[in-house]
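Task: sequence design from structure.
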């Protein structure tokens, strides 16, 4: 019985450490090279307040595995608040919320090939995208 309790504590601690490593990983906001935006516009873009940069329609894209860390770090909000913002925008203004991609590679490919695309990744950005900000 003691061994089981000890094992469960070790397992819980290990899971907790793994989770905190993900939460503290670097995040990079990336954009299609044809998209001209600044770091100060990130929150406006991901909350639907800014939809156009120059003559290009902005297309924000979420990265499912690191969305929680991005929301906390970059936007200073939790997922329920973020979802509420987009639900209201969708119904009131007809704005489509960001598509959620399944990981870094999907976000990178989408941003590379989509004019106006802005996303975030937890790996070093490759060539072919513009780094807007590192968190």
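Answer:
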């Amino acid at each position: 019985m003691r061994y089981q309790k000890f094992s469960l504590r070790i397992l819980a601690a290990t899971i907790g450490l793994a989770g905190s490593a993900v939460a503290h990983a670097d995040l990079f906001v990336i954009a299609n090279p044809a998209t001209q935006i600044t770091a100060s516009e990130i929150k406006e873009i991901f909350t639907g307040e800014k939809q156009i940069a120059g003559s290009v329609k902005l297309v924000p894209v979420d990265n499912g595995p690191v969305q929680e860390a991005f929301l906390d770090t970059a936007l200073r909000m939790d997922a329920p608040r973020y979802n509420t913002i987009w639900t209201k925008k969708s119904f009131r203004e007809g704005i489509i919320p960001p598509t959620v991609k399944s990981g870094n590679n999907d976000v990178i490919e989408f941003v590379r090939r989509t004019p106006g695309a802005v996303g975030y990744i937890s790996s070093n950005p490759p060539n072919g995208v513009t780094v807007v900000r590192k968190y």
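The radius of gyration is 17 Å.
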